[in-house]
Specification:
eight-stranded mixed sheet, about 40% helix, Calcium-transporting ATPase, cytoplasmic transduction domain A, Rossmann fold, disordered N terminus, Cation-transporting P-type ATPase N-terminal domain-containing protein, Calcium-transporting ATPase, cytoplasmic domain N, nucleotide-binding, HAD-like_sf, 39 strands, alpha+beta, about 1200 residues, nine-stranded mixed sheet, membrane
């Protein structure tokens, strides 16, 4: 059939889509798929569609899907052009800090070229070469670290790649979303992302959020027919990347990849650029501030040097170029921590690698630092605090509580009428189902059964461990006259009655009867069996008994006390029963289904594949329990589902409507209600008791409340079940009807209460300790759950959320006071039913949120959002967990939204900043710890790096201000800033957490910034001044050892022959040796003092020895590199001349660092001790960084 557009293609128009409010113009996409009828869909997409019942369509075959994937390519958007690696490397060279150094290097080259023949002109060249080397090294290192960080993040993203559920060959399987092809049948449900552009062919209360395309925030309820001429607003199309927020549906893929709506809207794809994180912005802002200060101070001191050296005239001995090198460039570079950006990148990369091992995925690494400063963790209960491995623990029916531990089928519990009703309700009103285990190894075919060969007629016993495949391998030739004969009355009575008419062939599931009880035999007419007079019962049926409908289209085998052959047959075999009439009917149905005069040849015998139960944990527990007493697959075949209202957190219930078996006299529809017990009971007027329906009275309501409180108080989740029979006049009679607005027609009252099923979900191992770690860290842990308050309270106490404070009832019980007389200020713990929050005023919220231990029960997603908003209004830093679709607003509103990687929906993961790959609360605590470690290590790096700036400035200022030889040469200062300091600074990225990192209160992000006055005080006024003082002491000691007094230093090293005050005359060569010796002592003392300081700064609070001095391998290597550079510059001939270093001097001139080191260690440990002892004192506020 011709269409307006080529299949799966689209045309773009330059016209705007007419959006209001200044929305970006988007290309108009021409769609026609929404207007196609089901017949047109079938023809245009070249698929087989069950037009009468689209929901029962089988979908593409695996071979067809594979062929289409090869022809049309993957369902993936073409990524935006990726810049080559050298562009990213070039960007590092264009970093503002590198540009500053590059400008200085160019100036040095220019000065070298224009000052040929001048004294010390080679220094210009040396500085330029060193700067070029450092620029290249720093840029390459930053490029490498950024690549490592991106590699870790991409690993996480690959772990979270999306999959889609498709129906192929009649079976639902999960495939990667990019493997979808045109014509695929895709199952979409609440919490999933639409994986391609779909035409909806079945909708069960399906609602999709299309705000990214239409701008409308309200979810759209999908239907099957076109509702608008414009495809964008037609409710029978669901677009790629839209979120399913409610219900379930089935759609046909009509467009994939770049041809989808999102693929055509270029403004939505690949256009966003990642900005700087908050943490990076704070670091870069600090460095920019330091850079401005460096430039300003360099200009000021350069001007002072020129004025002092040259006066206001240039000429004679005045050398502005030399002053530029000695003053401007040196002071400029000395004040800029060039290695800090690379250190930040390294810290973030190492943090990402640590998080990878701790099952925490962060979308932006600076989120970890925010997590480290959180003050409140608002956590879900199920799956986060608990194991999410629910089992049925108790039943309440017939007004009696029963434990399920010893319930067995052999105990005849299935004979209770009330129990059978409750089990059937649990089986039908349940979203779980069996699926093949995707992790099970593929099983090869074990052989084949060809009935045309007499040698291939094995006994049923030989097939006991196999099941028939779902599709015949071949159908060939005449069937012949085969019959199934049994060793007993069954064969004699039924087969003989049918004579030669019916006994063509019968296929039974292997192992139906005991091994060796039957055989396939060739015959030309009705035969008779021989042997025992009875057929053995069904108790010993093997586990592999399955439906045969996929083979014959008719025959069905069930397991239980009864087994029915043929959906429409009457043949029934009971335990130890005599043979009944009807085996011939079975034979006829089988032959008719396969076709007369043909036989099933080469039918493979395959081992039964292992299966798993798929669904949410609560449904899984009920499914597993009910399946012990009533085969759920058989029950669902007998009671097909006509309509469903899925469970959601707003309704707190689930309803299903079912059609009874055709053989049942009462054909009224069966409505099953499941949900929160109090919600279910409100819909009931009667209750089931020993098979009778009795009116609900005050006595029953009282017993219900008592039992509910007792079971919920043990920390168990309780579900209520009810049933109602619905007359045909109140509900459509056929499953073929397209239901619209059915929710209003589903009854909400006059149900019969069947009973309660309670589920136990024990806390995860490690969670109680993790909660205590949070409390020790000053972090409040709140539980927000949809469970009953008593259940929530019991679990909260088990996991230590409620532990240190008393609740109102506890105080009343201890003191004998009335609960109403207890004032709020005496209550430290509370369990709040969120319905009560509707009446809270702002002052009520403040009183409530002041309490240290809080649990919110019966919470809806809106409640979570309200709680989050009120907490943030109090300047709390909130980490909120969630896994459902409706949790996304709260996750977005929180400072840190945390989604569950296993149980979480795609919507929740999209809204969150952090995804826990193992759904474990302990991983949240690990993330908090890593956030604190990240902040600590960056703080330590800055403190260490800034310390050396004071001695460097002192080395220059003594020359500018007092006209005495500089403490270090220009190249020495540059080598410290650009070489020796960088490896130890970066090594802090690998520093382990201090032992008290989770014993401190969270930092106040508004006050405790990364760089604050106390840190600058340590770097500049404490450690910096200590190092500067000892360096000057070493400097003057060298001069003193050579008989040069401080008063002799004025104009020292300038004239050819210099007369000392003691009368000695020193030549210029001797003066140069002494000056170089003094500068070397200053230089060595500074570097070796920084070696000590790097270990002093390893901890902010904990004693250095307790934390470990040499436990950071990378720091040890960094220090070795630092000392190695020092040795090379001082002792390697030629290199030491370039740096004006002199190594041939007494060893004691290299040991002054021991004095500065001792003072640094002593002061550092004393400072940390006083901070630990007096953490809230003025001293701590002034000296703790």
């Amino acid at each position: 059939m011709a269409t307006e557009v080529e299949l799966g293609k689209s045309k773009k128009s330059a016209a705007s889509n007419g959006k209001k409010d200044g929305a970006d113009e988007k290309p108009e996409v021409e769609y026609v798929e929404h207007a196609w009828s089901f017949e047109e869909l079938e023809g245009n997409l070249a698929i087989k569609l069950n037009v009468a019942q689209p929901g029962k369509s089988a979908g593409l075959t695996a071979a067809d899907a594979k062929k289409r994937l090869v022809e049309n390519g993957p369902n993936a958007l073409t990524p935006p052009p990726v810049k080559p690696w050298y562009f990213h490397l070039l960007a590092k060279f264009l970093d503002p800090f590198m540009i500053l150094l590059e400008i200085v290097a160019v100036l040095c080259f220019i000065l070298f070229g224009t000052n040929q023949g001048s004294v010390d002109n080679e220094v210009n060249l040396y500085i330029a070469v060193v700067l070029v080397f450092v620029i290249c090294l720093t840029s390459v290192l930053s490029f490498y670290q950024e690549g490592q960080s991106a590699k870790v993040m991409n690993t996480f993203k690959n772990m979270m790649s999306e999959s889609a559920r498709v129906r192929r060959g009649g079976q639902e399987i999960d495939v990667p979303a990019e493997d979808l092809v045109l014509g695929d049948l895709v199952v979409i449900e609440s919490g999933k992302r639409v994986p391609a552009d779909l035409r909806i062919i079945q909708s069960d209360s399906l609602k999709v959020e299309n705000s990214s395309f239409t701008g409308e925030p309200e979810p759209v309820e999908m239907c099957l027919e076109k509702t608008d001429d414009e495809a964008l607003h037609s409710k029978n199309l669901a677009f790629n990347s839209a979120m399913v927020v409610e219900g379930k549906g089935l759609g046909i893929v009509v467009r994939t990849g770049d041809n989808t709506m999102i693929g055509n809207i270029a403004s939505l794809v690949g256009q966003t650029k990642g900005g700087k994180s908050t943490l990076e912005a704070e670091v870069i802002g600090f460095v920019h501030l330091i850079t401005k200060f460096a430039i300003l101070s360099a200009i000021v001191f350069y001007a002072v040097a020129l004025i002092k050296t040259c006066g206001f005239e240039i000429g004679g001995d005045c050398d502005p170029a030399k002053s530029f090198i000695n003053v401007f460039i040196v002071i400029l570079i000395a004040n800029v921590p060039e290695g800090l950006p690379a250190t930040v990148t390294s810290c973030l990369t190492v943090c990402a690698q640590r998080l990878a091992t701790r099952q925490v995925f962060v979308k932006r690494l600076d989120c970890v630092e925010t997590l480290g400063s959180c003050t409140v963790v608002a956590s879900d209960k199920t799956g986060t605090l608990t194991q999410n491995k629910m089992t049925v623990s108790h039943l309440w029916l017939d007004c009696r509580t029963r434990t399920t531990e010893y319930m067995t089928r052999e105990g005849n519990v299935d004979k209770w009428d009330s129990f059978k009703e409750l089990v059937m309700a649990g089986a039908l009103c349940n979203m779980c189902k069996y699926e093949a285990d995707p992790n099970a190894p593929a099983v090869a075919a074990a052989g084949s059964l060809d009935l045309s060969q007499a040698t291939n007629r094995p006994s049923i016993a030989t097939m006991n461990n196999y099941t028939l495949s779902k599709r015949p391998a071949a159908v060939v030739g005449p069937l012949g006259n085969h019959q199934m004969t049994y060793q007993g009355t069954l064969a004699r009575r039924s087969m003989q009655q049918q004579k030669g008419e019916a006994a063509k062939s019968t296929i039974l599931n292997p192992g139906f009867f005991d091994r060796g009880a039957a055989a396939l035999e060739a015959s030309t007419g009705a035969g008779a069996g021989s042997g025992a007079d009875t057929v053995r019962g069904m108790a010993n049926l093997p586990n592999i008994v399955r439906q045969l409908s996929s083979v014959t289209g008719q025959a069905t085998v069930g397991r239980g006390s009864q087994a029915t052959f043929g959906r429409n047959s009457q043949a029934t075999f009971g335990r130890n029963s005599q043979a009944l009439q009807g085996a011939g009917t079975l034979s006829r149905l089988s032959v008719n289904a396969l076709g007369r005069n043909t036989f099933l040849g080469g039918l493979p015998l395959v081992e039964a594949p292992p299966r798993i139960i798929v669904g949410n944990p609560s449904d899984k527990a009920v499914f597993t329990f009910c399946n012990l007493f009533k085969d759920i697959e058989t029950t669902r075949e007998e009671y097909p589902q006509l309509y469903i209202i899925p469970f959601n957190s707003r309704l707190k219930y689930m309803k299903t409507i079912h059609r009874p078996p055709p053989t049942q006299a009462d054909q009224r529809r069966v409505v099953i209600l499941k949900g929160a017990p109090e919600i279910v009971l409100k819909s009931c007027t009667r209750y089931m008791s020993k098979g009778e329906e009795l009116p609900i009275d005050a006595g029953f309501s009282k017993r219900f409340e008592e039992v509910y409180k007792e079971i919920a108080g043990q920390g168990e989740r309780v579900l209520g079940f009810a049933r109602k029979h619905l007359p045909l006049s109140d509900f459509p009679a056929s499953v073929d009807d397209k239901y619209k607005d059915m929710e209003d027609k589903v009854p909400h009252e006059e149900f019969t209460f069947l009973g309660l099923i309670s589920l136990i979900d024990p806390p995860k191992n490690g969670v109680p300790d993790a909660v205590l770690r949070c409390k020790n860290a000053g972090i409040r842990v709140m539980m927000i759950t949809g469970d009953h308050p008593l259940t929530a309270e019991a679990i909260a106490k088990k996991v230590n959320i409620i532990r240190d404070y008393s609740m109102r009832d506890d105080i009343a019980q201890e003191t004998g006071e009335s609960p109403a007389d207890i004032t709020e200020d005496r209550i430290g713990a509370a369990v709040i039913t969120c319905k009560d929050l509707e009446h809270y005023k702002e002052e009520d919220w403040n009183v409530l949120l002041d309490k240290p231990e809080l649990v919110f029960a019966r919470a809806s997603p809106q409640d979570k959002l309200d709680i989050c908003r009120h907490l943030r209004a109090r300047d709390e830093v909130v980490a909120m967990t969630g896994d459902g679709v409706n949790d996304s607003p709260a996750l977005k509103n929180a400072d840190i939204g945390i989604a569950m990687g296993i149980m979480g929906t795609e919507v929740a993961k999209g809204a969150a900043n952090v995804v826990l790959m193992d759904d474990d609360f302990c991983s949240i605590v690990n993330g908090i710890e890593e956030g604190r470690v990240l902040f600590d290590n960056l703080t330590k790096t800055i403190a260490y790096t800034l310390t050396h700036l004071v001695p460097e400035l002192m080395a220059v200022l003594i020359n500018i201000c007092f006209t005495i030889p500089a403490g270090m040469s220009s190249l020495m200062i540059l080598s410290i800033d650009l070489l020796t300091e960088v490896p130890p600074a970066i090594s802090y990225a690998w520093e382990q957490a201090e032992s008290n990192v989770m014993d401190r209160p969270p930092r106040n992000r508004k006050v405790d910034r990364l760089v604050r006055p106390s840190l600058l005080s340590y770097a500049y006024l404490q450690a910096g001044m200590i190092e500067a003082g000892i360096c000057l002491f070493a400097y003057f000691m060298v001069y003193g050892s050579n008989g040069v007094t401080p008063l002799d230093l004025f104009q020292f090293g300038v004239t050819d022959d210099f007369a000392l005050r003691d009368g000695r005359i020193l030549s210029l060569v001797e003066q140069t040796r002494i000056v170089n010796s003094a500068m070397t002592a200053f230089y060595a003392t500074l570097i070796l003092s920084q070696v000590v300081n790097v270990f002093v700064c390893k901890t902010r609070f904990v004693p250095m020895l307790e934390h470990g001095v040499f436990n950071n391998i990378m720091m040890n290597y960094g220090v070795m590199v630092e000392v190695g550079i020092l040795i090379a510059i001082v002792f390697i001939p030629g290199l030491n001349d370039a740096f004006s270093a002199y190594g041939r001097q007494p060893i004691q001139f290299f040991l002054f660092f021991l004095v500065s080191g001792a003072i640094l260690v002593g002061w550092g440990e004393l400072r940390k001790f006083l901070i630990r002892v007096y953490p809230t004192s003025c001293f701590a506020n002034a000296f703790a960084f």
